[in-house]
Amino acid sequence: MNHTRTNSVMSPRLSRWTGKAVLWIFLLAAALLALFPIIMVVLGSFKTNQELTGSATIWPKTWQFSNYAEAWKNANFSRFTLNSIFVSVATTVGTLLVASMSAYAVDRVQFIGKKAYSLLMASTLFISIGAVVLRPQFDLMVMLGLNRTLWGVIIILISAHATCYFILIGFFKSIPQDLDEAAMIDGCNFYSVYWRIVLPLLRPALAVAGLGAFQGSWNEYILPLVFTMSNPELQTLPVGLANLRYGIGAAAEVQLMMAGACLSILPLLVVYIFANKSFMQVTLGAVKG
Amino acid sequence: MKLKKVHAYVFVFPSLILTLVFGIYPLLWALRYMFYDYQGFGTPIFIGLDNFGRVLRDHEFWSSVGNTGVYALGKLVVTIPMSLLLAIILNRKMKGRTFLRAVYYLPTIFSASVMAIVFFIIFNSYNGILNQLLIRYHIISEPISWLGADHAMMTTIIIAIWGAVGNYMLLFLAGLQGIPNDLYEAASLDGANEFQKLKNVTIPLLGPVMQMIIMLAITISLKGYESIMVLTEGGPYGTTEVMYLYLFKLLFPISAEAQSIQQLGYGSAVGFTTALIVGGITLIYFRISKKMNDIY
Fold it and tell me: Minimal Cα–Cα distance from A20 to chain B, Å?
């Protein structure tokens, strides 16, 4: 806090200055704590295994770029990365499509069962009995013959699109209905209005909701873990990385774990730096929903 | 006009079918099997409420409930005041405000499981980065066993706080931005200092938002188990076992520490009980916080 009161021995100017100094020391200490693990993993990913486990350095003595090549090839991170990209991109596109379609219908058309549908969507946000639902979800995927592909994971992730739906429907209010009607007069039908008028206007909202969906699916751990228990070649980055801990000689290869961790946080880090504003809105939108 | 309704059904259909099949059906499945003895293969045997009797007698489960309480409380006691404080500071006009917000929010974007791996390397007892640094700068002489039975819970709480502060800071910031500036100006005209403004304008007006944020924080912290699963698997000796992790192990016995037999019927009963506990705590909090509103 900024102490502007002058009841101390110090002159008002000096006390204001100390107040500011205390405030900044606090803020910078908090910032350092927030960044410390991220800095350690980024710097650690360039160290040799010996340096990581033996000597307490912060800056790498020699920059060991080969860690990445080794993680990429030998620890199979190329495979994990490909799987992760596939899951995240497909989930994001699918979620946006499914949620925007239903939000469009609910916002623009009066139909029987609309209230019940909205209630259903709202209730899925609140009901949670944890991991119990994973087993029936898995059984369903076995029935559909999708348990040996990543589509099983993707479809289940898409099915949890309620948050995205509520973010989008909030934005729909800002697109005037007159636009739809004008487009209809010009010869558009229900579908082309959605595709050519509504979706382009919804782009900022789609960016915010899509970022949330991408982040969520990129970070998902439990679902791909369950689905890849007997299909190791389908592991995503979080699963593959966590498994390194139990792998043979994992203790001896901390540098690979560091490089792997970097590979899995790097995309989000880059996206975050470029889309900081939208990232902030993801959570702000979630409160409104 | 009729045609438009048909179109609407076509558009809602994918969302509806996905929600029903992969959201509602699994729920009903679990509700059904909590009355059965079912291990995932063979014929399920109906046993009525026996599973719930077993839940009541299950010491391991109730100790995981206790651990969850410690974990959630420890996390919230630091996270909520800390994030509120940061939000109040960063809501004022000051240099570097946007940058600091971004820095504090940064930890929340990473996967809990990946960060648990990173923290595993940092907190590792024998060659962990933290112990190495502390020893090198002569702050400690013996390595601290951060993930040992004595400290493991504290370590998981520290990690949880690290990942959560930025998120709640952002939620509080959103709430603070809803307070009209006129009120602060009026308070300034009346000669209020910063502390008085905080006490008489910010806190009371933030009340309802704060109530919702804390409720969200409680449910989220009761449900969190991903990072603990990767970091300690509930060990050592079950000291960091939280209820959702215990539940997961019943359903997917993958680790050496977990029971070796899958117990879907009993797991469903445990899942239902944990959901009741989380719901009950949320409800109690809601009642208490409403009463506190009356007192103010």
Answer: 11
Contact (CB, 8 A) for B253 and B287: no
Q: Say if the Cβ atoms of A132 and B30 lie within 8 Å.
A: yes
B7, A191: Cβ pair inside 8 Å?
yes
**pLDDT tens per residue, range B7-20:** 999 999 999 999 99
How many residues are listed for chain A in this entry? 289
CA distance A278 to A166: 17
Q: Which of B208, B223, B209 is nearest to B277 (CA)?
A: B223
A209 vs A99: CA distance, rounded Å: 10
- In 3D, which of B249, B248, B267, B265 has the Cα closest to residue B257? B249
Q: Inter-chain contact A35–B106, Cβ cutoff 8 Å?
A: yes
- Structural tokens at position B58: 């299950």
Cα distance between residue A199 and residue A197, in whole Å: 6
Please give the Cα distance from B287 to B61 (Å, whole number): 27
CB proximity under 8 Å: B 79-98 to A: 82, 86, 89
Condensed to tens digits (0 to 9), the pLDDT of residues B159-218 reads 999 999 999 999 999 889 888 888 888 888 888 888 888 888 888 888 888 888 999 999
- Judged on CB neighbours under 10 Å (0-12, 13-18, 19+), A183 is middle
Kindly tell me the burial class for residue A149, based on how many C-beta atoms sit within 10 Å of its own C-beta (0-12, 13-18, 19 or more): middle
Cβ contact, residue pair A98, B18, below 8 Å? yes
Instruction: Kindly identify which residue of chain B lies nearest to residue A34, measuring between CA atoms.
Output: B104
| Distance of alpha carbon B258 from alpha carbon B254, whole angstroms | 7
Contacting residues of A for B95, CB less than 8 Å apart: none
Q: Is B179 on the interface with A (CB under 8 A)?
A: no
Contact A54/A243 with Cβ under 8 angstroms?
Answer: no
B2 Cβ under 8 Å from any chain A Cβ: no
| B213-B226-B224 Cα angle (round to 5) | 30
CB contact under 8 A, B274 and A109: no
Measured CA to CA, the distance from residue B294 to residue B289 in angstroms comes to 9
Nearest to A105 among B11, B40, B121 (CB): B11
What is A221-279 written as a DSSP string? -HHHHHHTSS-GGG--HHHHHHHHTTSTTGGG-HHHHHHHHHHHHHHHHHHHHHSHHHH
What is the interface pTM, i.e. ipTM, of the complex? 0.88
- Cα-based distances in Å from B245 to A183, A258, B159, B217: 53, 26, 17, 18
Contact at CB, B127 and A254, closer than 8 angstroms: yes
């996390």: which residue's tokens?
B75
